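Exam revision sheet. Question 4 asks you to relate a sequence to its structure. Input first:
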Amino acid sequence: MKNFHKRVDNECTILLYHGVTKEESQGIENHNLKHIKEIDFIKQMDYVKEECNPISIDDFISYKKCKESLPPKSVIVSFDDGFKNNYTVASPVLIERGIPAVFYISSGVINTDIMFWVDDLEDCINRSKSKTLSVKLENKINFPISNNIEKIRALTEIKAYCKQSIVREKDRVVREVRMATNITPSVASSKNYEKLNWDEVRDLHSNPLFTIGGHSLYHNILSLIDDKIIEQELRASIDLLEINLNSKIKHYSYPEGQTNHYNLRVINILKNLGIVCSPSAMPGLNTIQSDLFNLKRTMVGFDTNIFPFFG
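Answer key, structure tokens:
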């Protein structure tokens, strides 16, 4: 991030993680480091504890409301999606160091074996024994998938197409990849695919260090959901959390989180549903003047995004 170390004393860094793992991956599973190694997470959280001022997302909102200056090197730790390793691997590291975190959860996959669609594609292509994969995107494409490099290239292009397609079209492509590879995607393929169960979410919620927020039902891109059902989907994702936690949900984050993945329509619905803050996944830092529905976050892992303080 440009001029990160010059700005960090006066602005808040929101770190964005997805998973923290102890597992050794096979093939192209976790090739993009969506799940970073536990040893790396420990080093990063040691730095946050010793060299920064870790604060909660609610602390940030309080500073903003009171128009107070942020502590120097303010850091918020956040997780998206709801992977089981957030609970089994990441949370003990955070608890030991007393570091707050917010977990944004796709509530429709909790306590299920439902695969996130990106993991669905990854697992199918990873375990395919075919040498080619034929799938219709804008046009019919025959992807070579004889080795891991070719598989990653095919996966990257298919994901990119899906991320700019309406939900119905994205679902068609995922089904077509399943049929073409003759693979039934399964969480049994990797522990990194496992999601939290409700007891684990409740345990995280009961810890005063942690905050639970929403992140859609099934990680569909909110701006690409049909106008007729977007409010229903957002409400259902929040209701599931509130019913299972017996608590009001005030926080949310947008799946994918780039500028084209949410819009004013989505923001207004979230506000009407009682959400007070929903950060993006756009890179950058935040001041107390920053809009709570357009906060920036710094991705860690995921396609070689480094821990910014070590950059």
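Marking note for examiners. The beta strands are 13-17, 19-21, 35-37, 53-54, 74-81, 101-105, 132-136, 140-144, 210-214, 298-299.
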